[in-house]
UniProtKB/TrEMBL annotation:
Superkingdom as given in the UniProt entry: Bacteria
Coiled coil: 189-223
Composition bias type Basic and acidic residues, residue spans: 280-292
One Pfam entry name: NLPC_P60
Region (Disordered): 273-307
Domain NlpC/P60: 306-426
Record protein name field: NlpC/P60 domain-containing protein
Signal peptide: 1-29
PROSITE patterns with a match to the protein in the record: NLPC_P60 (PS51935)
Keyword Transmembrane in annotation: no
Bias-annotated ranges (Low complexity): 293-307
Keywords noted in UniProt: Coiled coil, Hydrolase, Protease, Signal, Thiol protease
Length: 426
């Protein structure tokens, strides 16, 4: 009896073994030939173990997705921290430069004032000398005139002239004018010296702030490159786990990030609205208790933006896509306060290249008062002195700004990032 085996029908399929009994001793039967080819294999039903293994793999994939998303969130937090450090350093340098320029201007003015005081002193000194010579011609002791050329000539002259009744009326006015001019000249000289020293200190501070800003910018660039590379790898892994393209995975993650930012901003706005409602209710209660209280006037609609604001917005929009560079105010590269300063300069209004000073030189307003052209600020300490970022409000809940290293000038939601802290109108 001879056993005849058919070859395997394919990888992963159950091999079919056929045993044939041949009646002719010593003979081997050929396998029957199916003219239609081999019959298709029927997949085996999954076992309970197969189902459990698949569920475990799916659960593991979901766990991996969660881990990757957490890593992406951590990377975003590190990038955010680096961005804030660099922004603080940049605005500190802008502030130091602004202070140094002001100090140099003050020193120049003080030097000019000192020169004028010296000229005034020379005029009064000459007038006093003429008065002495005139008095000497009227019989004043010659020693008084000789005192003019001595080391302490004017002081000696004052002592001698004040002792003489004969020349008292002549010298009174000239003496007082000279003393006042001498005092003014001394004060002006001291002010000029102090201003020059302050200018030197401000310049040294600006140089130190520049070095800190440069180091912070380099650190931010390195962190940005490292984190962006890491994020790219994580998004690719996320795409494989989710069975989608990298572009889709990236878009999904950006949507998740945007949704989280929007939720955080909405929570802050809700808290602010609740507090405002409580304050309004308290004010209303107080008004009702006061006799003769008047109904508050209805809110007036916000006026349309002025031509200057439109010009500022148009200028800022024209820079969209241009790179961020710390300390830059164009052309071709910008930091946050540099873009805002040049945008409003195009509208005919001068603002410093320093976000804190931009707030100080504008009129503070509330978020609900925003209109196109207004300024939006982010701070790190709850006070205007801690402002480190500024944007131009474009209307409809959007801003135009120079965000950070690695991101060009952009137009996006006012709540794309952290909730703004201050608002002002130039």
């Amino acid at each position: 009896m001879t056993r005849v085996r058919f070859p395997s029908l394919g990888t992963g399929l159950l091999a079919l073994v056929v045993t044939a009994v041949v009646c002719i001793p010593g003979a081997q039967a050929d396998p029957p030939v199916d003219p239609a080819g081999p019959a298709p294999a029927v997949p085996a039903a999954p076992t309970a173990e197969d189902v459990q293994a698949a569920q475990e793999r799916a659960g593991a994939a979901e766990g991996d997705v969660a881990v990757i998303q957490q890593r992406l969130a951590d990377a975003a937090a590190r990038l955010d921290a680096a961005t804030i450090r660099a922004a603080r350093a940049t605005e500190a340098w802008n502030g130091a430069r602004w202070s140094a320029r002001n100090a140099r201007a003050a020193a120049r003015q003080a030097t000019a004032d000192a020169a004028v005081a010296d000229q005034t002193l020379a005029v009064h000194k000459e007038a006093f000398r003429d008065a002495v010579i005139t008095a000497q011609g009227m019989g004043l002791d010659i020693s008084v005139v000789e005192a003019l050329v001595s080391a302490d000539g004017m002081d000696t002259l004052l002592e001698q002239s004040s002792a003489s009744e004969y020349v008292q009326s002549l010298f009174d006015q000239r003496r007082d004018e000279y003393v006042a001019a001498a005092s003014a000249a001394a004060t002006a000289a001291e002010t000029a010296t102090a201003a020059a020293e302050e200018a030197d200190r401000a310049l040294a501070d600006a140089r130190a702030a520049r070095d800190e800003a440069r180091a912070a910018a380099r650190d931010a660039e390195a962190v940005t490159a490292r984190i962006e590379g890491r994020r790219t790898k994580l998004v690719r892994r996320l795409a494989r786990l989710q069975g989608v393209s990298v572009a889709v995975a990236r878009a999904r993650q950006e949507a998740v990030d945007a949704e989280a930012a929007a939720e955080a901003a909405a929570a802050v706005r809700a808290a602010e609205a609740e507090q405002a409602a409580q304050d309004k209710a308290a004010d209303k209660t107080a008004d009702e208790k006061e006799p003769g209280g008047q109904e508050p006037a209805a809110d007036e609609p916000a006026p349309a933006p002025a031509d200057g604001a439109q010009a500022a917005i148009a200028f800022a929009r024209a820079q969209l896509g241009e790179p961020y560079r710390w300390g830059a105010a164009g052309p071709g590269a910008w930091d946050c306060s540099g873009l805002v300063a040049q945008a409003w300069a195009a509208a005919g209004k001068a603002l410093p290249h320093y976000s804190v000073a931009q707030y100080e030189q504008s009129t503070p307003i509330g978020r609900d008062q925003l209109r196109p052209g207004d300024l939006v600020f982010w701070a790190d300490g709850g006070k205007p002195s801690s402002i480190f970022h500024v944007a131009l409000y474009a209307g409809d809940g959007r801003i135009i700004h120079a965000p950070r290293t690695g991101r060009p000038v952009s137009e996006e939601s006012i709540d794309y990032w952290r909730t703004p802290d201050f608002f002002a109108r130039p």
